[in-house]
Amino acid sequence: MKAAAADQSLLIELQLIDSAIMQAKSKLASLPEREQIVAIHTRLKASAEELAIVEAELADVTIDLRRSEIDVEQVADRITKDEVRLSTGNASPKELEQLQHEVATLGKRKAELEDGELEIMLKHDGVKTRVEELRSDEVGLQKLELELNVRLENAITEIQAEIDSKLSERANVLPKIESPLIDLYEKVRSSNSGVGAALLVGNMCQGCHLAINAVELERIKTLAADEVLRCEECRIILVRI
Question: Which of 5, 44, 98, 188 is disulfide-compatible with 196, CB 3.0–4.6 A?
Answer without folding.
Answer: 188
